[in-house]
Amino acid sequence: QVQLVESGGGLVQAGGSLRLSCVASGRTFSSYPMAWFRQAPEKTREFVAATSRSGGSTYYADSAKGRFTISRTNAGNTVYLQMNSLKPDDTAVYYCAASSFILSSRATYYYISNYDYWGQGTQVTVSS
Q1: Could you give the CA distance from residue 32 to residue 69 in angstroms, rounded to a whole number?
Q2: What is the pLDDT of residue 27?
Q3: Strands (E), the chain
Q4: What is the CA radius of gyration of the chain?
Q5: CA-based torsion, 114, 29, 6, 88: positive or negative
Q6: Is 61 exposed, middle or buried (0-12, 13-18, 19+ CB in 10 A)?
Q7: CA separation for the pair 123, 128 (Å, rounded)
Q8: What DSSP letter does each residue of 83-117 carry, written as one string?
Q9: Using CA atoms, how far apart are residues 91 and 94, in angstroms rounded to an integer?
Q10: pLDDT tens digits, one per residue of 59-93
Q11: Residue 50's CB: how many other CB atoms inside 10 A?
Q12: Is the pLDDT of residue 125 over 80?
């Protein structure tokens, strides 16, 4: 069992940056692949970025490539999402997620159904 708590959301102007953090409880954080998803109003929750257990592999949605960076510190039980060059379309609630499954291929990191632990979300609003 793992509990996730996000922070770092807020209001920012287009072109600005934000850094989201997600702190996990428990002593087995390093055994979980981690990801960030987001959900805009009246839209389905979508994949943003993911990292492997060690942090050695990272995966991004096309919308995040080149602008967002996911990282983790297993010693600190924390995963981050650095978001640069923000756009109004990035406005959403951002969720941290952990997977208790063995994600054996790149594609499996993108599937929302492979993540079984979720945080409460943090709001990101980008003004134009």
Answers
A1: 18
A2: 74
A3: 4-7, 10-13, 18-24, 34-39, 46-51, 58-60, 68-73, 78-83, 92-98, 117-118, 122-127
A4: 14
A5: negative
A6: middle
A7: 16
A8: E-S--GGG-EEEEEEE--S---SGGGGG-GGG--E
A9: 9
A10: 999 999 999 999 999 888 999 999 999 999 999 99
A11: 26
A12: yes
Residue whose C-alpha is closest to residue 36's, from 3, 12, 69, 14: 69
- Give me 76's structure tokens: 């600190």
Q: Which pair of tokens denotes residue 110? A: 């993108």
d(CA 36, CA 111): 11
| Ramachandran region, residue 54 (left: φ > 0; alpha: ψ -120 to 50; beta: rest) | alpha
User: What is the token pair recorded at 85?
Assistant: 């060059």
Instruction: Return the closest-CA partner of residue 25 out of 97, 102, 77.
Output: 77
The whole-angstrom separation of Cα 101 and Cα 111 is: 12
What are the tens digits of pLDDT across the range 22-66? 999 977 888 999 999 999 999 999 999 999 999 999 999 999 999
Two tokens, residue 1: 């069992």
